[in-house]
């Protein structure tokens, strides 16, 4: 099992700031509430990682930590926005899980797929996070997160998302990044080519 310590503030180095900045408060609000682990870093996710389409998964561990001071250097309002998300004091309260999933997918991309950088998000069509915008040759990651249900919940999401994403003619490389907070497990899998 490979271990990947990752500081959340490093997302600003690995991906486009405009995408990262809205995902981080959701990660801060969502991840500590997960069952099966403590409420203080490191937050350990057991990740089934399929680096090659159709290959057996390897067991990886992502150990997520953060420094609030380092995060505030990039976004002075991060703590306040995380607090409002955690307590439902924002219109985004129903999207915390979804936004945290995007943040965690970017963590997995940085930790497991070095050299890939999320530059934009796709609107309304999979994959969610794009590495480039080459017409009819998109490369990216489709994301989903669940608060509970563990690997069983993620298996159901995978069944629903994998075939339609792999069948898209405009996508040449596709990955799934699926996350659960309780217990803290994930699947990060290349599904095309």
Outline the structure in words.
This protein is an alpha/beta fold and 193 residues long. It has one domain (2-192). Helix content is 35%, strand content 30%. It has 6 helices and 8 strands; from the N terminus they run E-H-H-E-E-H-H-H-E-E-E-H-E-E. It has helices spanning 11-14, 17-30, 68-74, 78-86, 96-112, 150-166, and strands at residues 2-7, 43-50, 58-65, 120-121, 129-130, 138-148, 171-182, 184-192. It has an 8-stranded mixed β-sheet with strand order 1-3-2-8-7-6-5-4, with helices on both faces. A hairpin with a 1-residue loop joins strand 7 and strand 8 (184-192).
- Domain count: 1
Query: Which descriptor suits the 3D outline?
Result: globular
Which strand-content bin applies to the residues? 25-35%
Tally the helices: what do you get?
Answer: 6
Low-pLDDT residue spans: none
Order of helices and strands: EHHEEHHHEEEHEE
Count the beta strands. Answer: 8
CA radius of gyration is 16 Å
Helix content: 25-40%
Structural class: alpha/beta
Largest sheet, if any? Answer: 8 strands, mixed
Trace the largest sheet across and list its strands: 1-3-2-8-7-6-5-4
Distance between the termini: 25 Å
Mean pLDDT: 95
What order do the helices and strands come in, and which of them pair?
Elements (H helix, E strand, L loop, with lengths): L1 E6 L3 H4 L2 H14 L12 E8 L7 E8 L2 H7 L3 H9 L9 H17 L7 E2 L7 E2 L7 E11 L1 H17 L4 E12 L1 E9 L1
Parallel strand pairs: 1-3, 2-8, 6-7
Antiparallel strand pairs: 2-3, 4-5, 5-6, 7-8
């Amino acid at each position: 099992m490979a271990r990947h310590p990752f500081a959340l503030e490093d997302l600003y180095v690995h991906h486009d700031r405009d995408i990262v900045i809205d995902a981080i408060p959701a990660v801060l609000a969502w991840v500590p509430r997960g069952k099966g682990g403590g409420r203080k870093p490191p937050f350990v996710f057991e990740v089934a990682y399929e680096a090659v389409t159709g290959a057996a998964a390897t067991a990886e561990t992502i150990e997520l930590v953060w420094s609030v001071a380092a995060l505030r250097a990039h976004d002075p309002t991060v703590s306040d926005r995380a607090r409002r998300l955690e307590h439902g004091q924002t219109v985004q309260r129903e999207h915390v899980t979804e936004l945290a999933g995007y943040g965690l997918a970017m963590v997995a991309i940085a930790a497991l797929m070095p050299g890939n950088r999320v530059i934009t998000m796709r609107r309304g069509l999979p994959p969610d996070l794009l590495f480039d915008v080459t017409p009819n040759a998109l490369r990216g990651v489709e994301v989903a997160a669940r608060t509970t249900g563990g690997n069983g919940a993620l298996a159901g999401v995978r069944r629903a998302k994998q075939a339609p994403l792999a069948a898209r003619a405009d996508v040449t490389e596709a990955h799934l990044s699926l996350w659960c907070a309780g217990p803290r497990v994930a699947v990060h899998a290349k599904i095309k080519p």
